[in-house]
């Protein structure tokens, strides 16, 4: 029997639950069990729970067959709990290091109280940490164990269950269960606190309470479900009615009830406008029914609102609220004037176009900050032309990259009059990065963010932890991301990262990457044609070398002595070398090409054709490895500066421990791998198979079609994904030569 049981319900939290579980399973105190409850989550939360459970037998997973809501999901966990104490943790929150040790020690020191209350800290997307505003109530001065009568002010803490440890036999004796509906913590919290004979506190912040920028909780949901608050207080007072010895708590709980009703009425974004009067009248009815004899209203304006509720005067209450909002609206008006000034700076023409109707058959595409026609947007644009030729497709490119757009593809130059016209009026805006800050997201427009790789290195908000890697303004970044309607994902791993580091109100589409369709659909003739276009001899082995960008390097300088590597590998090997697009061209690669067995492909417009032509990929930390893995061809990692890179940029997993193939940290070792069969032997194949299983979830050759049907044609259901084991990638160069 463990000392502690932690119950962690999960629903649509795939971007956060891994961090939550890491914070629990990594605690220095180990005498606990975790019950993860998959509340029939439609995302990958259940699969993530299963993955962690396979690695740590302290975690057990319950998969519910229907979505029952937070309260009843907790009840399912309660039924399985065996610990002395029960703790609840929401799956997007985390435990601070050492918390379970501190909780267990305090339980021991206070002789196993009915309830132990501990503190929490609000954590914000921008890195701010704010401890509970009522942390003063957590002082350990005075008796170590007490009843609520001795410290009634504890009722003023937020009515939450996840900042307390409950003795399991206390819970069982009183039959505490969570009800369905919104505000399910209120009946449990108030009933357990007034029933407890022995309470203790721990003056330590144990829970890191995530304040999700995009919301994600009921407090930001406009719904009639807020009427559930009445049922919850029915349950609180029913508990009191059955326990006459607790009758003295009626005034305090009446005050909590009325305050809660007023909060729902006064907070914007909760009740539908046409439901406010109905809610008020129901609140007034409960007020009169439960008003304790001799109850004294609070002083001042709060007490006046109590009085208006008591006489059921909604018109007077509404007038009071409207008067109180005048100053608030004045402040908002000032902000609006600033906003109008900023929009005016976009130009008279752009503003005029923004007033024109949205063109339902106009789509704008861009990639890599206007660098040309490529990546996921290019694959989507081509598929859109096949499935919906009536849609006009326009590419936005910078002037210096206009020649990178194929002939026959319509283009506009970024910043031109035509550019502002299509950006203002297009129904669809697709990019693999963000459009500029000056672009206005119009009502009726759809922004599709495709991304351009699977993240090994930290991205988005996580980059703030690595200031040497970026000087990005995170608030501006998230305002740009607020424009997204859809975010594409190539694999479940990426989904969990994107949803956490770009916390905005978009819909994730787990479609696979459209740019990778060709890696599954290409024929033997396509592979041979890709090699012939590069001038590769039929019998040559082609290694594609694609190192990534490093923030601590200003220009591309190969980290290998390429001429020596080519010489050591012999005349039957050709090196295709592609520098990262962030780097400006240098003369160094041109010099190296003179020998004939090194080809600079940095300016090649279609990296997927390079993938098809290559027998193997050599890279360091580039996302190319995740795409290339779809070909099921060998990948070799050359990582001579791994420790520096992970410290400067940060990474999401240890590439040295989970590589897609053989690993070299020196040129000598790389030459040894490539000069033997290590690069393509059984060990390398086994590593690649595990890598593919983890990162090639959805790339089955139909990603572009999924995106077009969902985003542009409005189809509700995504095409099913062909399982990895049933896919047939494009043939290898050796196989292709035998088939043509």
TrEMBL record:
It holds the Pfam family Glycos_transf_2. CDD domains: Glyco_tranf_GTA_type. It is found in: Cell membrane. Residues 6-133 form the Glycosyltransferase 2-like domain. Keywords: Cell membrane, Membrane, Teichoic acid biosynthesis, Transferase. It is a peripheral membrane protein. The keyword Transferase applies. Belongs to the CDP-glycerol glycerophosphotransferase family. This is CDP-glycerol glycerophosphotransferase family protein.
């Amino acid at each position: 029997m463990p000392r502690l049981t932690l119950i962690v319900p999960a629903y649509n939290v795939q971007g956060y639950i891994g961090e939550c579980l890491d914070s629990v399973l990594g605690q220095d105190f180990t005498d606990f069990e975790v019950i993860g409850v998959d509340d029939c989550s439609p995302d990958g939360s259940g699969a993530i729970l299963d993955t962690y459970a396979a690695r740590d037998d302290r975690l057990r997973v319950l998969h519910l067959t229907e979505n029952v809501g937070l309260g009843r999901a907790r009840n399912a966990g309660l039924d399985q709990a065996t610990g002395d104490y029960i703790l609840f943790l929401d799956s997007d929150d985390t435990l601070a290091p050492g918390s379970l040790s501190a909780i267990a020690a305090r339980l021991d020191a206070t002789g196993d109280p009915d309830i132990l209350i501990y503190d929490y800290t609000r954590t914000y997307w921008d890195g701010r940490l704010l401890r509970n505003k009522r942390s003063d109530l957590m002082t350990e001065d005075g008796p170590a164990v007490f009843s609520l009568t001795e410290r009634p002010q504890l009722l003023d803490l937020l009515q939450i269950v996840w900042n307390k440890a409950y003795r399991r036999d206390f819970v069982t004796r009183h039959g505490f269960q969570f009800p369905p509906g919104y505000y399910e913590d209120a009946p449990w919290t108030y009933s357990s606190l007034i029933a407890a004979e022995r309470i203790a506190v721990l003056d330590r912040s144990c829970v890191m309470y995530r304040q999700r920028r995009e919301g994600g909780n009921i407090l930001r949901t406009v719904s009639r479900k807020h009427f559930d608050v009445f049922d919850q207080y029915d349950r609180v007072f029913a508990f009191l009615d059955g326990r006459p010895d607790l009758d003295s708590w009626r005034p305090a709980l009446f005050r909590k009830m009325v305050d809660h009703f007023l909060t729902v009425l006064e907070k914007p974004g909760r009740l539908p406008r046409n439901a406010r009067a109905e809610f008020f009248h129901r609140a007034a009815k409960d007020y009169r029914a439960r008003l304790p004899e001799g109850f004294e209203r609070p002083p001042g304006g709060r007490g006046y609102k109590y009085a208006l509720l008591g006489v059921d005067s909604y018109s007077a209450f509404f007038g009071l609220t409207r008067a109180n909002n005048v100053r608030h609206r004045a402040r908002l008006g000032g902000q609006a004037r600033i906003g109008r000034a900023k929009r005016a700076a976009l130009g008279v023409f752009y503003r005029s176009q923004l007033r024109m109707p949205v063109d339902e058959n106009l789509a704008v595409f861009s990639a890599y900050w206007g660098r040309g026609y490529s990546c996921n947007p290019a694959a989507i644009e081509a598929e859109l032309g096949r499935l919906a030729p009536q849609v006009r497709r326009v590419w936005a490119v910078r002037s210096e990259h206009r020649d990178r757009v194929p002939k026959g593809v319509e283009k506009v130059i970024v910043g031109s009059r035509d550019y502002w016209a299509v950006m203002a009026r297009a129904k669809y805006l697709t990019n693999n990065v963000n459009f500029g800050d000056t672009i206005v997201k119009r009502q009726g427009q759809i922004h599709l963010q495709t991304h351009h790789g699977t993240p090994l290195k930290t991205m988005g908000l996580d980059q703030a932890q690595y200031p040497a890697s970026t000087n990005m303004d995170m608030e501006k970044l998230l305002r740009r991301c607020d424009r997204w309607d859809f975010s594409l994902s190539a694999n479940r791993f990426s989904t969990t990262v994107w949803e956490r580091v770009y916390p905005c109100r978009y819909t994730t589409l787990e479609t696979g990457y459209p740019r990778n369709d060709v890696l599954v659909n290409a024929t033997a003739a396509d592979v041979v044609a890709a090699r012939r276009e590069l001038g590769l001899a039929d019998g040559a082995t082609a290694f594609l070398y694609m190192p990534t960008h490093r923030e601590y390097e200003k220009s591309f300088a190969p980290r290998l002595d390429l001429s020596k590597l080519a010489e050591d590998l012999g005349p039957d090997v050709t090196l295709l070398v592609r520098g990262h697009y962030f780097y400006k061209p240098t003369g160094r690669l041109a010099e190296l090409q003179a020998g004939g067995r090194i080809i600079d492909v940095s300016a090649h417009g279609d990296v997927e054709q390079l993938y098809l032509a290559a027998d193997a990929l050599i890279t360091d930390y580039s996302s190319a490895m995740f795409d290339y893995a779809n070909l099921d061809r060998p990948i070799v990692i050359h990582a001579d500066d791994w420790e520096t890179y992970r410290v400067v940029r940060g990474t999401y997993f240890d590439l040295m421990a989970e590589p897609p193939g053989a690993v070299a940290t020196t040129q000598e070792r790389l030459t040894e791998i490539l000069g033997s069969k290590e690069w393509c032997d059984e060990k390398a194949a086994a590593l690649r198979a595990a890598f593919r299983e983890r990162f090639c979830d959805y790339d089955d050759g139909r990603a572009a079609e999924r995106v077009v049907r969902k985003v542009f044609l409005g189809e509700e259901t995504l095409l099913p994904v062909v399982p990895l084991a049933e896919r047939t990638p494009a043939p290898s160069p050796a196989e292709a030569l035998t088939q043509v």
